[in-house]
Automatic annotation (TrEMBL):
NADPH-dependent FMN reductase-like domain segment(s): 48-127
InterPro entries: Flavoprotein-like_sf, FMN_Rdtase-like_dom
Species per Swiss-Prot/TrEMBL record: Mycolicibacterium helvum
Any Pfam family: FMN_red
Protein's name in the database: Flavodoxin
GO molecular function: oxidoreductase activity
Length: 151
């Protein structure tokens, strides 16, 4: 069975709504053979990340950057993951109230360094998530899980 790890920092109701939609998509009953594991970014260990076959990363954008919690998860796991997780698929969802370009650049740099493969476009939501935003989050979760199912 493949393992999909959702690493998230979910401090607000808007982030929670996005997280729940991503989780719902990833655990859709039509997706078989994929175990979905979720870890808050501050408690996610390098072992959690090494055991995963694919990743969903969720964070608010604070001051134009990823949350300190998600940065911490990568700081503690970067070297153990380096060369061990190349080629693994990932997806990203971000919530911000202003520009998210810095956060997107940070995630691009981290995942490129790890050799991960983007399996879906980022979902970026500004302000309160709309119905279309929630659907995009659901689709993101389902896409990454289906990508693992097909491997």
């Amino acid at each position: 069975m493949k393992r999909l790890l959702i690493v998230h920092h979910t401090p607000s109701p808007h982030c929670q709504e996005m997280f729940e939609a991503v989780l719902s998509g990833a655990t859709d009953p039509d997706i078989d053979g994929v175990e979905v594991v979720r870890r808050p970014a501050l408690t996610c260990s390098p072992a959690d990340m090494l055991k995963a076959d694919g990743y969903l990363l969720g964070t608010p954008v604070n001051l134009g950057y990823i949350s300190g919690a998600l940065k911490h998860a990568f700081d503690q796991a970067y070297y153990p993951l380096l060369d061990s997780t190349r080629g693994r698929p990932f997806g990203v969802y971000l919530h911000g109230n202003e520009g998210t370009e810095g956060a997107e650049r940070a995630i691009d740099g981290i995942t490129a360094g790890l050799g991960w493969v983007r399996a879906a476009d980022n979902v970026v939501v500004m302000g309160k998530p709309t119905k279309l935003d929630v659907e995009a989050c659901w689709n993101l979760g389902a896409t990454i899980a289906a990508t693992l199912m097909a491997q």
